Amino acid sequence: xxxxxxxxxxxxxxxxxxxxxxxxxxxxxxxxxxxxxxxxxxxxxxxxxxxxxxxxxxxxxxxxxxxxxxxxxxxxxxxxxxxxxxxxxxxxxxxxxxxxxxxxxxxxxxxxxxxxxxxxxxxxxxxxxxxxxxxxxx
Amino acid sequence: xxxxxxxxxxxxxxxxxxxxxxxxxxxxxxxxxxxxxxxxxxxxxxxxxxxxxxxxxxxxxxxxxxxxxxxxxxxxxxxxxxxxxxxxxxxxxxxxxxxxxxxxxxxxxxxxxxxxxxxxxxxxxxxxxxxxxxxxxxxxxxxxxxxxxxxxxxxxxxxxxxxxxxxxxx
Lengths: 138, 170
Fold this sequence. Notes:
The complex is a heterodimer. By secondary structure, chain A is mainly α. In chain A, 74% of the residues lie in helices and 0% in strands.
C-alpha cells in the first residue's frame, strides 16, 4: 500500500461528527444570554425613540394650546411697535398720549361720604376710646 | 469554501442576540473543531462537552470586534480547554464507531484503529489535512506550529498509517 491509498482510505472513513443533540443543547444553553441581549438591544432603540416621540408630542400639544389661547383672546396684537416703522411708532405714541389725556381730564364722578370710604362705615375710634376711659376709671 | 454570510456578519448577529447566527456559526465550525477534539485523546462525550464549552465561551464573550479569524479563535479556546482537562487514556476517535454511524465498515474501523496508533501531534495534523483539507499554513496557524512542522508531522503520520493499513489489508 502506498501513501496515496492510505490517504484515500482516511478520506473515505470521514471525520467524526458531533451528535445532533449537541447543537440543540448548545442553543438551549445560550438562549438566556441571547434573550437578554435582544432585550437590551430593544431598549437601546426604544428609549431614544420614546424620547423623540415625547418631544414631538410636547411640541404639537404646545402649538395646539397656543392656538386655543389665541382663539380665546382674539386676534393677536403686537405689544410693541416695530422700531423700524417710524410712522406706526409715532401713531402708537400719539394714541397712547391721547388715551392718557382722556383719562386725566375726565371729570371725577360725584361721590357720597360712604362711597369715598369704599361703601363702609368708618368707626369713630376717638369717641370709643374716651368712652372706654370713663368706664375704666369710673 | 463557506457559503452564506461571513463570520463577522454572523458575529454581529450573535452580538445582537440572534439565535440563528449562533446556529449558522455552529454549523460552519463545529465539524472541524469536533474532529480535532476527537483527535486529542478524549471520549466522545468529553469532546462534545468541550465543543459546547468552546461555543459557549464565544457566546459569553459579547464583544466580537477583535476576532479576525473565528476558526483560529475557537481553536485557541478549545486548546486551552483540552490543556486544562485530564487526558483520557482511551482513543475514542479510533476505537468503537459512533452510535448510529453509517460508515461502520471494516475499512473505516481499520482507519480509526490505525489513527489511534499515531501520536496526538501527528493525528491532529492528519485530521485537519485529510478530513478538512486545510493547507499546512492554515494548520500551522491553528495549532501554533510552523507550516514545515505540520508538513513533517503529516509525512511521518502517513508513513505510519501506510504500514498499519497495509498490514490490515494483507
